[in-house]
Design a protein that fits this description.
- With 175 residues, the protein is mainly alpha-helical.
- Helix content is 57%, strand content 10%.
- The protein has seven helices and five strands.
- The strands form two sheets. Strands 2-1-3 form a three-stranded parallel β-sheet.
- Strand 1, helix 2 and strand 2 form a beta-alpha-beta unit.
- The longest helix is centred in the middle third of the chain and has 28 residues.
- The model has no long low-confidence stretch (mean pLDDT 90).
């Protein structure tokens, strides 16, 4: 939570990031002991984190929190589901346009600039590179199936982490 909060402030420029824990519900009694204990630790700490409590999977894309903390397994499952949903939606949209006759194809031509904006905004290559925060050095893991654009994005993330002294700032925040 601390590392994510510092990352959001230093790298993303969020003034006072809202931090939450991913859980099966937002109610205090829900979730496993690890998540409940983590929430209690964050609530009871003297850290200057804006801890919001629990968020559900549907809250992740709604902007309820700037930093969503989870374990690696659950986070990876959530990420893969989001990627799969986007791919499914894109495929269904293409089928609808191709099978929708002349009106659908004309509608696509009119809306093509908006579709390009969406495609660019949600291009996973732009966000390639998972930061391994909390290590002695800078580690950015690139997606195995990326191309040169995605790999360059991951390198850009690493450069930002070094340039903005993210590791040093995290250490300072935790003292």
């Amino acid at each position: 939570a601390v590392m994510g909060e510092v990352f959001a402030r230093v790298i993303l420029g969020v003034q006072k990031p809202a931090v939450a824990l991913l859980n099966v519900g937002t109610e205090e009694g829900k979730g496993g002991e690890v998540v409940k204990t983590a929430a209690a630790m964050l609530r009871d700490s003297d850290l200057s984190i804006d801890f919001q409590g629990f968020v559900e999977g549907t809250d992740v894309t709604e902007g309820v929190a700037d930093v969503v903390v989870t374990d690696g397994f659950t986070g990876n499952v959530a990420l893969k589901i989001a990627e799969g949903t986007a791919a499914m939606f894109t495929s269904a949209l293409k089928e609808a346009i191709q099978g929708g006759g002349l009106r659908a194809k004309l509608g696509y031509l009119v809306a093509r600039p908006a579709f390009q904006v969406l495609k660019d905004k949600f291009d996973p290559r732009r966000y390639n590179g998972a930061m391994f925060l909390g290590l002695s050095g800078v580690v950015v893991k690139s997606h195995g199936g990326t191309d040169a654009v995605g790999f360059a994005s991951a390198i850009g993330v690493a450069v930002d982490l070094v340039r903005k002294r993210t590791n040093e700032r995290i250490i300072d925040e935790m003292r």
